[in-house]
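Preliminary data (for renewal application), flavin-adenine dinucleotide complex.
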Amino acid sequence: MKKARVVVVGAGVVGFSTAVCIAEALPMCSVTLLADKFSPNTTSDGAAGILLAVEFPDIPLERQRRWFKDSFDHLLAIAQSQHSPEAGVILSSGWQIFKEVPVDKLPFWSELVIGFRLMTDCELKRFPQHKFGQAFTTIKCECSSYLPWLENRFIKAGGEVKQRKVNSLEELSSSYDIIVNCSGLGSKNLVGDTQVYPVRGQVLKVEAPWLQHFIRDGDGKAYIYPGIHSVTVGGTRQEGDWRLQVDEEDTRSIMERCSRLEPSLSKAKVLSEWVGLRPNRKNPRVERVLVHLQGCRVPVVHNYGHGSCGVTLAWGTALDAVGLVRQCLNEMLLEAKL
Ligand SMILES: Cc1cc2nc3c(=O)[nH]c(=O)nc-3n(C[C@H](O)[C@H](O)[C@H](O)COP(=O)(O)OP(=O)(O)OC[C@H]3O[C@@H](n4cnc5c(N)ncnc54)[C@H](O)[C@@H]3O)c2cc1C
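Predicted structure:
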């Protein structure tokens, strides 16, 4: 039987996770991944890669819990395997601290990470500006290693990779049966989504091998995440800001905020600075639609708009996307029979 031709647009963590999941789960499909930018030049490459979720307002919590759990379990298995250093996936323990006690003391993901507990007063003494804290072990997934690792896995599963900018979905409709859109912020132009917008983030990589625990301020404006080769120090959350160049004032204020939490950072050597644009949306878009392209109805599966949680949720939303592609295939089969 002829294979169904599936194209995945996007080579960030969402695109590659989705492409791998489809190629491995649906052998009746030939899968091609198209993107204009690949590792190390995607947003995903510079993400700190810590698994931590925010709560999206209009997506059932059960679905968000499943996205988190599927991603966590998948990455935990890698972190505990021989592939950990090569894939850039490690366990990471530390503290999330708050200046004011949050409404949600126990976030929905608290039972999905390892050993979640509230910090004791004694532990909090170290952070005099903070009243409340959570201690847990999560995962750090470094996409500059993880994306090439996923690409290899995709190719082993029979996938094909091509570098190309897609200007409109019409360009794809004659060569592919199903289009899977994982273009992140690119969806603003590619599918005309006015709901997706950038939230600029600037981070530094520093050399500080003595740091072993992460520290994150609950407001997301100060975090210190030790990784395999360096420590990621951040950050900023500038809504609607498209600037990709490093801002020296941001660097100064990041170091100031983070040194307040971890004074030894003043001894750390700055290795690099980086800016990325989070593909924010009120809710990520993980859904199937039929689009009229060149006189035909073409199934399109969207999977984008993960904001600050793309690394955290990529595998979970990729599994949902596989289910949506499967539904497209069933409908195509049914139509062929009628
Ligand atoms: C400073 C910072 C820190 C972060 N820290 C974390 C963290 O700790 N944990 C976490 O979970 N998340 C974090 N994030 C968020 C995370 O980086 C994003 O959610 C994630 O990278 C989104 O992945 P993506 O694959 O959707 O998009 P991207 O990585 O941006 O990939 C989009 C892909 O689509 C392609 N594309 C777009 N348009 C087109 C087109 N027209 N034609 C062809 N190709 C196209 C691009 O070339 C690219 O390959 C952070 C982000 C920033 C900026």
